[in-house]
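On to my pick:
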Amino acid sequence: MSVFTKVSHAELHTFLDQYALGELIGFQGIGEGVENTNYFVDTRDGRWVLTLFERLNYADLPFFLGIMEHLAARGFPCPMPVRDRHGESLRTLNGKPAALVLRLTGQSVLFPTLAQCAAVGAALGELHVLGQSFAGVCANDRGVAWRRQTGELLLPHTDDDTRQLIRDELEAQAALDLTRLPQGVIHADLFKDNVLFVDERLTGVIDFYYACNDALLYDLAITLNDWCAEADGRINTARAQALIMAYRARREPEPQECAAWPLVLRAAAFRFFLSRLHDWTFPREGDMVHIKDPDPYRRILLHHREHALPLQ
């Protein structure tokens, strides 16, 4: 979440006239994240998050809002999109597609406990189960083709060691066919800053704007890499076991997933190494733009290349 598009008080007031949310009290830009413009919005009737979609395909936006509605209606702790006076959840603000969702209680954590890791694993497993009944379809626009294209784009702009790492990983992952693994709706960005807690109780899973259809195991790998990695790239075994065991209590991985797990962990680390390296190399303009350091994911990737973490 960043601020690329500025919104004035008058512009937001006009936008909110389309909703039955009461008088605008205040709003504030959110500086974290890297893709969309986000604001906290307070009105007389509640607290909300406003998102202006900067680079996402307009045709995919109903999928993102639809999966949140689908999950929230089934008791999953994610934000419910707000519909306007005409029953629409997607509007336009300052020339950008925009949506309001309910702001959930709780805070993200930097140093998760074992109980919090277990809560995240259970929530991810539940998301994968509930997502099976969602009819919407959205391709992963940062899948295999994107990783190859982005890796090749970066090669002329990197040092020798990084070029070799990218080339080696592209070659190794050519043997991985994620389409042969169980598929479904995935969050694809279940990082620590996208999960809210009150103490050790999980109160919210947010930011579904990378959600798509892909291998469920890939989503588990993305989540584990962020929640269980130490600063040097090593995976904390206790946190990983807590997360995996809680996930398995909701959804048991199949044998082919267990076999593919080490390479899927690498694919998940490689995806975020490439995206962060791309943003570092080709920064975007904007107010309060947050660019994340690619080196943590380089270290995670290097660790996975040397150590195979078992899924069971």
